[in-house]
Amino acid sequence: MWPVKSTGNPYYITDMSWMPMLGLTALPHLGGFYGGYVTRKQVKTWYKTLNKPSWRPPNAAFPIVWTTLYTSMGYGSYLVWKECGGFTEDAVVPLGLYGLQLALNWAWTPIFFGAHKLKWAFIELLMLTGAAGATMVSWYPVNRTASLLLAPYLAWLCLAGSLNYCIWRDNPDTDGKEE
Q1: Residues 1-11, buried b or exposed e (16+ Cβ, 10 A)?
Q2: What is the pTM of this model?
């Protein structure tokens, strides 16, 4: 198991090499927790009043999907970080693009659910999808597994973009204000 200090205390961990894996895997969830906080009230009130396409996933699917996607993208970022030898010059582009797409990911929820700006959320989601695609491409030569861990995320972003567009299209006068 984990190496222990020579004192024989099995609860004293001296090898902390697992910390970057845990930290980088958990990082995307920080924005997810904030997004859940912003979304929780709005799903039961404002979002419920919107016209939505019949093919949209049930509300209960979203936290399950996002937990899975955030975990896989976070672990993928760890694989890239490890392959590049940490935050090195080689890591600037792949991890920089990852940081950009993560920031865009975290920004979507306050725009859509917080500000009720459906058009701007859609535009932001298009930029997010492009950044996520660029991240996936930049990860491929570094670590193919990491790159492929982003494939379900990219597919989900395409579904989310379609859903966001349809909601924007079908609700032109949302919250009493024209988008």
Answers
A1: eeeeeeeeeee
A2: 0.86
- Distance from the Cα of residue 97 to its chain's centroid: 13
Amino acid at 51: N
Q: Which pLDDT does position 154 carry in this prediction?
A: 98
Tokens describing residue 34: 């904030």
Provide the token pair at 113: 């659910």
- Predicted local confidence at residue 102, as pLDDT: 97
What are the residue ranges in the chain where pLDDT is below 70?
A: 1-15, 174-179
Q: What is the DSSP string of 64-126?
A: HHHHHHHHHHHHHHHHHHHHTTSSSGGGHHHHHHHHHHHHHHHHHHIIIIIT--HHHHHHHHH
Q: What is the pLDDT of residues 9-42, one digit of tens each?
A: 666 656 677 888 898 999 999 988 888 888 888 9
DSSP 18: T
SS3 53: coil
